[in-house]
């Protein structure tokens, strides 16, 4: 699948957090009718569900907040006020968890199956972020980038 204009890499941070900006992008793109149909089934589930759980907010409420037109930082502030406040340590754990999800963990087998089904079995996919990057035409990032 080619890259979607306006959809960030999951590695890009909003505030201290990876992935949430991508979730905000998907909400905005879907609302405008610019999110490819392949993404629709995962709205509010999968990694979005994990992000909402970490933030302590309901996806529908988050979606409504994003669609007010607030910028990313304001939406993240709303999440802190509405859900759970996370300290620097919590954010570091979140980032590490998300960036390594699928690497030698409970999701490894599913990730291998997805990568193989998508034709990426020989592309060095070790995490879900890797799968997203390759699927959208970006190189796999190292942990230090």
Protein traits:
2 strands; 2 domains; two-stranded antiparallel sheet; 3% strand; mainly alpha; 145 residues
Describe the structure.
The chain starts with 12 loop residues before the first strand and ends in a 10-residue tail after the last helix. The chain is globular and about 45 Å long. It has 2 domains: 8-100, no CATH class; 102-136, no CATH class. The chain is mostly helical. The protein has a two-stranded antiparallel sheet with strand order 1-2. Helix content is 52%, strand content 3%. The mean pLDDT is 94.
User: What best-fitting shape do the alpha-carbon axes yield?
Assistant: globular
Provide the structure class: mainly alpha
- Supply the number of helical segments: 8
Portion of residues within helices:
40-55%
Number of strands: 2
Quaternary state of the chains: single chain
Low-confidence stretches: none
Rg (CA only): 15 Å
Distance between the termini: 23 Å
How would you summarize what this structure contains?
The chain has 145 residues and is mainly alpha-helical. It has helices spanning 20-32, 37-40, 47-55, 59-66, 72-82, 88-100, 108-117, 128-135, and strands at 13-14, 17-18.
